[in-house]
Queue: 4 jobs
Job 1
Amino acid sequence: MKFGRDFEGQMIQEWCEAYVDYRALKLILKQILRFRHRDPAFRRFPPTPPPPPPAPPSSTTASVNNSAGGGGGLTRRISLYRAFSGLTNRAKGSPRKRDKHNHHHNHHYHLFDDEEEQVILITEDETANYTTTFLNSVDDGGELEVMFFRRLDGEFNKVVRFYKQKVEEVMEEADELSRQLNVLIALRIKVENPMANLPDINGIHSSPVSPEHQSNRVPDTSPMATIKEQEQGEEETSVDGNRNKGFKPAPLEMLDNVKINIKPETPLTMLKCMISSLTSKQTFSKSELRTAEELMSRAFVEFYQKLRCLKSYCFLNQMGFSKILKKYDKITSRNASKSYLHAVDNSYLGTSEEVSRLMSRVEATYIKHFAHGNHREGMRSLRPKAKREKHRITYFLGFLSGCTVSLAIAIIVLVHIRNLMSSEGRHQYMENIFPLYSLFGLVALHLLMYAADIYFWRKCRVNYPFIFGFEQGTELGYREVLLIGSGLAVLAFLGVVSNLDMEMDPRTKSFSVITELVPLALLIILTSILFCPFNIIYRSSRYYLIRCIFHCLLSPLYKVVLPDFFLADQLTSQVQAFRSLLFYICYYGWGDFKRRSNKCYESDVYRRFYIIVAIIPYWFRFAQCIRRMLEEKNKDHGLNALKYMSTIIAVATRTLFEWRKGTYWLTVAATTSSIATVFNTVWDLVHDWGLMNRNSRNPWLRDKLLVPYKSVYFVAMVVNVVLRLAWMQSVLGIREAPFLHRRALLTVVASLEILRRGIWNFFRLENEHLNNVGKYRAFKNVPLPFHYQELGGAKRV
């Protein structure tokens, strides 16, 4: 694989603009190469390739101090209550030490042997910007080489600035985590009261410090203290080898001004927060300790992922500079790489060791405080294994897909052989059995579209696992989703084959009970699989779906996040599936399923619920928009809520028109549906997709596009508008089509909406990904558990 492709494949996609633009530099080198091929002077004297430049040294992660989690038994237990001295070694209030390469400026880098000709001169100014002077600019083609080094300097300075900014951010975050961990240790002592159960250690009892001594002692809770737990041994050892003699627990007085910051993510926690806000007294309970430990554990894991990404960013850019300079030396027969790579190695990018040191300290701290001293368990949490593609998934996908095609062909052949299309029981079958199986068909089609979305997201490098908040290694790929969809299709087709017998028993005039209960049994089996507690059939993904569904059901009471409203949008395209579920209840509860007959559509109660279940998905989104508008104070969410309210009115009036007819209801249905269609279409294209921007670099599109062909976006716009007009089928009174029963026509219209939703999914997540790229947002924001109150104001600890 070429380095350029491998380089782009290993990028952190949200930081792609901060990497060295290897492709642009390579294009300039191609121009230099074409010029040299055209110039007869270069053709007459072919250049000899220079020796390859030295590769940049690869930084390695410092080894983990195993003693941080070791000690066993009492030793490890005591260390859990020791005040934490911090992840960094910066003194409180003192400015950060300048790196060794910043002690002096205006450096000149020109490494070359006596027999070698000097090609470039690199200078570093006071702002740590590097400028390269090409000394052979008067040569033929020299202006192209000047342009190359000018672009190279721009990329190098961009990379150094970005890396330095990110390192400063993680150092500040490390300080914050250190302060939070000190409070967590104090809370652990407060809740668990470990001193009462600890024995005397070398004649010194580990009881709590007396109030007199505690009041006189001034604790140093600075996260930037020079004493490092991991580097200086956390457990002081006396001359005679006795350990823990110098044990000092974390000071408890810091809890006096601490407020536990557990956000109300559920209705129950919201109620607790409301009650606790009425009482000024702090209650430190074991449940709050567990929640705080969970939040801190997640924060440390996410922080460690940032460090790993920063380290990868540093290494990849160093490798990129090395590779592009090697190509330059090969094309121009010069030896400029030594000087430039020496500047790279001596820059902040090559000399900064903060990230490696932080990684080792975070590993040691996490293993001790959150992994019970188990090194393997701690590293498994910090470094989750990447998901691997399994051959059995591909095998079963091919097998079930083949079964699906075979069963579909078998059904067509059976219908043709038995002449079921003209059978007397055709209408009876379509009115009673077809709606039951159409539910599975609509779900399977949605899974197919979702699998296609995943495939194209991966192809366009959209980081959908991060956007949806999947745990690393648990996200489903398109093969897994296709496997689930094909398995569902096989079960549904087998049920259809069992119900194709339209001949009744002449004596009882009823069908076989077993075959008539197949759809209900299939629905119960699939529901049982969804809620199955065993670790089979992608349990983490099933629980993720259940949690999102539960949040949608109680959408006004839960904080709205992207996975929740994204799922609610999917549900708005499954209105016909909701109505099929309602038909299940009516058909098997009050219908005569043995004779394939029902009077559901004649019941006023059923008709009311027929409208209600169609409105429910849109209500989810309406409630979510209202909550976001109140929390974020953004009027756009209010407009979005009006959009869903217009859709609710349109769906209700179209359904009423189907039953009541008349010019009045026709006018109302057509008017409300037209308003809702225009509102939804404009919102999709402008807000969700980020298109229709006439002032962008790509007229009527975004400034940045992931799909290389612009025509795809315009075709998608047209298709979105056309598919949104499917509601006209009901308003125009089209009840049946040639060779299609009215129930089949409803399913086809519902399928068109699912296809439109699948197209919407791709562009909606593309827009979200580009927003993350523009803000360099590559990590989740994990809330920290504590706030420190000072002088009546709230301040983070």
Note: Residues 391-774 form one domain.
Job 2
Amino acid sequence: MNAWTVPGYAETRELGSGGSGRVVLAVHRATGTAVAVKYLAERFRRDPVFLREFRAEARLLGGLHSPYVVGLYEYVEAPDGAAIVMELVDGIALRALLARAGRTGPEAALALLKGSLLGLAAAHRAGVVHRDYKPENVLVTADGASKLVDFGIAAGRGSTPGVAGTPAYMAPEQWQGGPASPAADVYAATAVFFECLTGRKPYTGGNFAELALQHVEAPVPVAEAPEPVRPLIRRGLAKRPEQRPENAEVFVAELEGAARAAYGPDWEERGQRKLAALAALLPLLFPSAGGPAAGTTAVATTSLGRGHRPSSAFRPGRRGLTAAAVAVVAGAVLVLATRAAGNEPQGSSAVSAFATTSATPAAATPSRMRPPETPHPSPSPSPSASPPPSRSPRPGPMPSATRTTARPPTPPPTSTTPATPPTTSPPVTTAPPSPPPVKVTAVEVGSFVQTGVATGQATVSVKATGTGPVTVVLEWFTGDTAGELGTPEGTDTLPYRPDGRALAAPTASHTFTGKGCWWQVRATTRPAAGNGSSTRSLFIRSCQAPS
């Protein structure tokens, strides 16, 4: 265990540990804010490549502004240690839910996929590809919300960092060492979606070579999924990147359309309730439960050949492709074997409430699978300070005794402050913020009905975290074209305040004066919601032919 601790924090207990470090629950002394502190293991801290990767993860987290991604408070590096201080989310890993329930059902799977895709969308807008979307890296909170964590092997869009990821969820181009692209994240997210629906991974080869070939060549197993969501799986698991949605944001739009058409306007609310119910079955896995620390994780992050049979739909072909797949995987297997020989724990498997993060040297292992991982605590809303959108998120040189704060109580500074002498730990210069203000994660027009000859009524649902006032703005329109906003008819403002849990559903009525067969309403919020706005149309009765 690393004896060095981040100054200014009182450690409560260890949340998890692994080959690359440990994670502790701590409290910031000045504000009482609970945080998660991830320490890089000493032997990796002395490796400049690992240390550079650890800094890269902190810098990347600080650049993602999304309530669907773990937030960064500060990065601290001193002569005696390095640590990332993050916000703590009281949630459990999707892997634990699947281990307990087997599958989630379609509405819950769609709700979970949407939340984590919105986290991926924030990364994609910043030019970052996650490269390791899997059930261990998707967290579910007590209210059924989902969040994406672990950017330990993320890469810049278009970069060629080599073979990396978790085999069961790697896109064909990842197996072949192709450039990092958002479409690869879409593939991995779809593979997890398939697992939530069916209780099994889309491909379950008996070894690395067979698994690689299945991802590259085997048919997409859409027949096992419910019929309404098969188009999403067919698109998301397409073999060629250009055949998939180009990024997570595009995929979210397709998902919402399919979900609404198949399960109605309230699908997301029902899905989150189902996720919350599944999470409630595992109360001791929440960080707030105060249970024992999680154990270490296995070297290979995906089990190959344990209780799995090769897909019956797969028929190996093309000997040249087989040989190529074996050659690609050989380097990864060698890396895994080398790390196993280096005293990494083997075979231990922890079902925990924490995602996993690894500081793996891209330069040292150009062909690599996911290395030993450190259980990473559950996160919650947003971060700050972004890497350039067109470059790989690899930071430049950083002084070895520094403290960089991403989210202080006031607007986040971007400078790095040198610490005091190497004989003592650097002094506390900044603190994480007070409990966060309200953040609106989503707004949706839940229903829109005609109540009279010229009157309509809309009900809005809002999802938010934190405390503080929220204002819902409803804009009314009339027009002659479905799906398009017509002539503005006025605006209603509905101020209200979250109660800390579910929000009341604000309702407003409007008398329409314009002509046209379609009424429309658009809902937005202040502060702005994560999904921007929600629009709904209504074909009025006076335009319908008599029966």
Note: The domain at 439-543 is CATH 2.60.40.10 (Immunoglobulin-like).
Job 3
Amino acid sequence: MTHRQVMQSLTGLLMGMFVSILAGTVVSTSLPVILSDLHGGQTAYTWVVTATLLATTVSTPIWGKLADLTNRKLLLQLSLVIFVLASAIAGFSQDTSMLITMRVFQGLGAGGLTALTQIVMADIISPRERGKYMGLFGAVMALGTVGGPLIGGFITDAINWRWNFFVALPFAVVAIILIQKTLHLPAQAKRKVSIDYVGIVLLSAGVSLLLIWVSLAGNQFEWASASSFLMVGGAVVALIAFVFVELKVSEPILPLTMFKNRTFTLSVVASISVGVSMFGTSVFLAQYMQLARGANATQSGLMTIPMMAGLLIISTIAGALISKHGKWKAIMVIGSVLQLVGLFMLGTIHFNTNFILVSLYMFILGAGLGMVMQNLVLIVQNAVTPKEIGVASSGIAFFRSLGGTIGVSVLGALMGTKVADLIGSKAAEMQSALAALGEKGQAIGAALASGNIPAVHTLPDSVRVIIESAYGDAVAHVFFVAAPLSILTILAIVFLPNLELSNQTRDQRAKSDSEATSQGSPLEEAEHILVDVSEASVAVTPGAEELTARR
């Protein structure tokens, strides 16, 4: 494909990415306000995020496998429709249960967009050339990740938080039309399709039970309890059954043979800790800005720009360097080290830390994620066969989402406990501050006792400083606990095979492999040539009778 053809095909894909990012990030700075309005606490806050991650995690490998079996263009449009309709309905939520339910459907659509975007890229752009187009993806991610929180914060402060869920609708309509008109994918060979329905059910049940247990344990029931035993036992049984099914079926959802590929296995390990860093920081930084620094929704969006700037600027530069030189390993090792440093430094912040320092720490973390996250998918696509690209790409996204979901759930529970302990340690100060406020203090005390997340920027200074201090130290504690996981990313990337990046797209590689198979191996070709030469020499060499006659 020419550059012009690639650009035309990418138009709808980029718009679809923008819609997915915008619909996800536009509510990030508004969640404290939304939960306050719907009377939700820290558990509900964690579940609003976890529900989407859970559905994304479970559905990603399913979308990826379907992409290897059927029309990827249609699947992309379908996932986009599901995502945006769920977003629109979420705007009418009357309580946290309805909001969480719609977030589940958002996650189903996001799983498709997450997997299919990477798969379709492999159809039209070779691994070596993909760096040249990272600037475009960086620009779209910038509009979505930086613009989303700003738009969401402005809408929440100026109109109403419900409009955050409607803002992506016009973009979605345009995206679906553009994908239909501009995205032209190579035709897939017709073949009999066998969908692993049993595997889908077992994977969904096993992962869902495990993640729901992680989310609820410690809040709804004790970690060591009958409920924990039943949920973990059920998850283990379902996942063991899933392994047996995947070994037997002809078209497994997650082929276990993929783990024989060293690049895939190590990339899975790295993706798990990257998921914790990526999803965890996006959730807890918003809480830090609003609950520890007293920012409103709009200000919170502005204050997270340094991290997004680090991710987008550095990922674009790294992509261009990889495309130019074909070397990826040194860039990814540096990125994994920056991820560790960024998380560790964020683990040292307080509610009153100089914001220039906080911005620097966020930029470092964003830079590290930008150098690692997308390139993990790139090198896996480069290392597997063309027919495995779909399931391999979705596999990496699956484990990244799995790590993020478990990380957010565990870290959210840890943060809730830490906040309660810190506020409890200052109970005397809090009682004194509330008593000095009279009836207003009693109302604030009742709201805090209910467990609801407060709108910190509206609180009196005497109470506000206690709440900000507690949340500031709790968020820092969460980052400090998450930091050691980044060591896994460093080790996994160090031991990745340093394979050369291919200059062929998925379709070109498939045709090359097919031609090579039909022509036989180089050894077989050499044998054929020797036989042909031998026969030719026999044909032109005079026999004994012919020589006698000549004499």
Note: The chain has a mean pLDDT of 77.
Job 4
Amino acid sequence: MNIFAFVLLSSSLLPFFFVLSDAGDSITKPESLREGITLVSKHESYALGFFSPGNSSNRYLGIWYNNIPVKTVVWVANRLNPINDSSGMLMVNSSGSLVLLSQNRTVAWSAKSTKQARNPIVQLLDSGNLVLREENEENYLWQSFDYPSDTWLPGMKLGWDLRTGLERRLTAWKSPDDPSPGELSWGIELHNYPEIVMNKGTEKFYRTGPWNGLGFSGAPDLRKENPVYTYNFVINSDEVYFMFNLITNSVISRALLNETSSLYERYIWVSEDKKWSLYLSYPKDKCDGYNLCGPHGNCIIGESPICQCVEGFKHKSSDTWNPEEWFKGCVRITQLSCEDKDKIGFPKFVGLKMPDTTYSWVNGSMNLNECRVKCVNNCSCTAYTNSNIKNGGSGCVMWFGDLSDIRQVAANGLDALQDVYIRMPASKQVNHKEEKDKQKMKVIVIVVVAIAVVFGVLLIPYCISKRANIREKLENNVMIDQDIEGQSEDMEVPFFTLATIVIATNNFSSDNKLGEGGFGLVYKGTLIDGKEIAVKRLSQKSRQGLREFKNEVILIAKLQHRNLVRLLGYCIEGDEKMLIYEYMPNGSLDSFIFDQTKAKVLGWSMRFNIICGIARGLLYLHEDSRLRIIHRDLKVSNILLDSKMNPKISDFGMARIFGGDQIEGNTNRVVGTYGYMAPEYAIDGLFSVKSDVFSFGILLLEIISGKKNRGSFHLDNTQNLVGHAWKLWEEGRPLELIDTGLKGSVIHSEILRCLHISFLCLQQHHNDRPNMSCVVMMLHGESSLPEPKELGFFVGKKSTSSSKNESSSTNEITVTMLEAR
């Protein structure tokens, strides 16, 4: 061996003689990191070392949380090239690049720096960022934050460096055992109006809609106002990126892509439970699926079908409109002429997710009127809006061609609303001056209301000091509730102070009392801005505890359907627990159908509309919402009526959430209301969507007859309403069941069909009952119905619980089974 070869070999082996023996936060050029040694950041937040994921024996270099007991990897270096033994070594080579070597000094991974460093140092920061820099200099030559894996950490930019062409994008692990890149990715798609897009392979899977200065039109949860973290979206000539930062260092939160569930998920670490709690996820529901309803289609959760058309358009395949046809979308009802601009208008649409921005044009200096003029003069312009709605709105966005991937998004506060103006015939034209004046008036009203609310709050100053602690307590309690685990993000509904509620209800005056249930009193209230509300004030002796209260807040805040009551907010102060709902001026359904005078107001046509509305609401709960929900306390007193007598299902305190394909469960704590329980639930504690179907069958009988199932005695005093109705059906006298108040409005064929459907819902065996999608079709169809089998009868004369208060929703009952003839 000549002297040159010896020197070369010695210099190449030199790093192996400076292997770290103690954990620190950095290594320098002569040092290296090998198996069994980890780098730990200065304040011990993160660690860097070698690990094997899941059940794999492969070794990877990664970064994980160092301050929690569950090993959670947030970054992987050699995702594409695992090491199959313990030979891995991290070092800085002679050219100043960070390299990972495997057996036989093969390069398994390398990080090329922007320039060669004279005295390089590799350091793990407390942000979880691994950086390469010149010693005694702050600028990074390379950083792991520029090359994320599946996890998004605070301070990490997602997006583009337009100067270098670098894209920072999340890619999911293929599986828990394999960190190599999967199909799912999440990053900013560069268009004239950039937005975050989730791809599966090369296909779009979900998009947030563009950033409008306050949030994303299609992802209302990703907004700046948040108790845990803040977002920052930056777009300029050098960079386009999205970043989040935690409000307090006491919270640990991360976001990641999950290949298995095909979701973007955000988690918060719950130290008391020593586990990660799901905070939010996207896509949330079917309507978040990319372009599900095709061009000009509007996806609306709660509608049946969920794919509707934007107003002014019609289904392209109207004769065969089914899920297989939705992608074809909608076409204009009236074709527009390009030449005659006087016949063109731009009506305003509110609450829509902004269309796909692929074919858009943006000018940040134009105002809305200038934007409209430019769109009118361009025949290809389909719609326009402000590019930034912050501070009253500015900039111009125009869309060309078909409008794709639109959905209806629930209003998330006045500031989050974004208007879009779509090209239509002039008959639908909007006067923009009037709209501008209305917006100004709206701002004035908001300011006045805000001042009035502050003045009202000052009347009871001692309540204010408790608000922060109460909010924190509520959020922490939500995270540890087994039934609603992982749903803590849904507590983000408005918080009302006790002072506000006291003023609104005139200190809970008896004149404002709307009703009383098993869990407390309900009051009518009027906020300072004149908005009417209903306040459900839980009794301190109520059997609905914090568990049921949180359940109701979470469920109703998430659910958006025309036939479900809308939750406006909540209040917890001291021993007070209150839910604030939209006010239903016509009260509950039982106040009509069980009152001989008021029952006459409800003709059959109105009752049938109420039946169909309840059915649609249940269908949404069981099949169309993101999670399957069993109400468990469906009864006429829990059906509220708005000003137009539209029904809304309320009281979700005892509802249960099912995920995925789960269809049934059981419990030792039988809850519900006497007279509406399905036999299998009352006897064995088994509940499912079919339990709600049984309760719906009872509702049908009560609406048709105007009589209560419990306490309705007939003939020999041994039967309840179900038994009496079945007896009349068997004897060919079903019309005798009809409420006498329906005279003059009866449609016999429709009533008999509803009665028949009721019996199908009341089958003794739950497998014989139809699901709600079948019920909805049967209500609107004319085809023949199957013959009902044995009915499930209970609450007969032999029940030992007849003395219990009907308003109670927790029961211990004796069941009497009567066999149908």
Note: The mean pLDDT is 81.
